[in-house]
């Protein structure tokens, strides 16, 4: 036991020294490159399904027109929203501090805003309940700790996820139609497409990467990308149902 | 002489490596003044637990297909009955209590027939199935303040909270477990799970006393849809809910409550 713990202590020290060394040795490229692109949906967009919120009148009255499901949201130009685009391979540095700015997941109109959220491991996540009703927020991860918290209107709730996982399903057991996803990364090179399917990954160091696009209903896709210092590249994805 | 010392040294290294291996398995468990031994725990596990929880502790024992709810998967280190916050590991004493108490309305019997030392040994062995017990520490345990009297007012406040906290969504307006969301509920492995019927009595999963109920309201039942009401309610409000839930299984108390004129 003692032998083990002293070895663990020694290896921790070694890792600390090593990470300090790599941190001090790493300098960002003078002109960071950027990656932009569009994720499109091919074919006719599926009609969104209407959600019946009548079991909780406080949810139903928050919508003047009936709320619809958000699993496949296609914009007017065929752009696919809520797709997580991220660097899945090729990073040479692995030392990243999570941003000090917390990410926010809001429960509004008994739906998650945003429907798909991408954050960094260790980054603070502020869960906000803007509804009058009481929610319970219940992520069901494979690689992180599972928790399940009740949140009445206005109660502050702050959580973190320790490990990378793409993506953790989030649900509210009280309102079974509520579904969302939280993608957790160990690096800052990811983006979620907006309602037009556009995304941008900023400040990518020069290198050769595998870029992956993840969508909750369809299988993920990957593409190779080589990017030089100061280059601005575009990369598009197309999802077919 | 030198050879002898060398040989002795090699033997010592071998021995320490061997012990290192054994103690690596010997995930420590302490309950009161008892210290669990995972090696002894393994022998007990193979004899008593393996049929349901399986040789790898993943809940896939030979009897598992016939059980509902399914046996716990120890490799996930997610436990229903804890005194620690939602998302936290349980204390050793929590696992010990579950083994001792058993879980009502499931295939898990009470293991009180085993010696206390044997139950602590089992805790030590169960903790070896997940590395989480080496990497993380359990959160701070729930503090349970003294229980105020179960007055009529307390029960009525509890009833309002049962409404505003959306307990009825699963447990139903009458507490029978037929709320509008009840049919959609699954545990974290996707198996259907039914909300507790509070009118059926007090054979709750994590203990039958009022402080047990108070504790479950704080911790939730991890791995199930039952959330933690950790900071959603004050301690007094939790006692109100406990009193209200108790009243649901006591028909005479309910009848009395209905027949009494309101205090104003």
Write the layout of secondary structure elements.
The complex is a heterodimer of chains A (241) and B (264).
Chain A: H1 2-25, E1 33-41, H2 57-60, E2 84-89, E3 103-108, E4 111-113, E5 116-120, E6 125-129, E7 135-139, E8 149-151, E9 157-159, E10 165-171, E11 179-185, E12 190-192, E13 198-204, E14 207-214, E15 221-227, E16 232-234, E17 237-239
Parallel strand pairs in A: 1-16, 1-17, 3-6, 5-11
Antiparallel strand pairs in A: 1-13, 2-12, 2-14, 3-4, 6-9, 7-8, 7-10, 10-11, 14-15
Chain B: H1 2-25, E1 29-31, E2 34-36, H2 38-48, H3 50-53, H4 92-101, H5 116-126, H6 132-135, H7 152-164, H8 168-171, H9 210-219, H10 235-249, H11 251-259
Antiparallel strand pairs in B: 1-2
Helix pairs in contact in B: 2-5, 4-5, 7-10, 9-10
Q: Could you please describe the fold and organization of this structure?
A:
The complex is a heterodimer of chains A (241) and B (264). Chain A is built from 2 helices and 17 strands. Chain A is mainly beta. Chain A has a single domain (2-239), classed as Immunoglobulin-like (Sandwich), CATH 2.60.40. Chain A has helices at 2-25, 57-60, and strands spanning 33-41, 84-89, 103-108, 111-113, 116-120, 125-129, 135-139, 149-151, 157-159, 165-171, 179-185, 190-192, 198-204, 207-214, 221-227, 232-234, 237-239. A 5-stranded mixed β-sheet of chain A has the order 5-11-10-7-8, with no helix packed on it. In chain A, strands 1, 13, 16 and 17 form a 4-stranded mixed β-sheet that branches. In chain B, strands 1-2 form a two-stranded antiparallel ribbon. In chain B, 44% of the residues lie in helices and 2% in strands. With 264 residues, chain B is mainly α. Chain B has helices at residues 2-25, 38-48, 50-53, 92-101, 116-126, 132-135, 152-164, 168-171, 210-219, 235-249, 251-259; strands spanning 29-31, 34-36. Chain B contains 11 helices and 2 strands; from the N terminus they run H-E-E-H-H-H-H-H-H-H-H-H-H. Chain A binds chain B through residues 1, 3-4, 55-56, 133-138, 140, 145-152, 155, 157, 159, 173-176, and chain B through 16, 20, 23-24, 26, 76, 78, 85-88, 132, 136, 164-166, 169-170, 180-181, 184-185, 188, 220, 222-232.
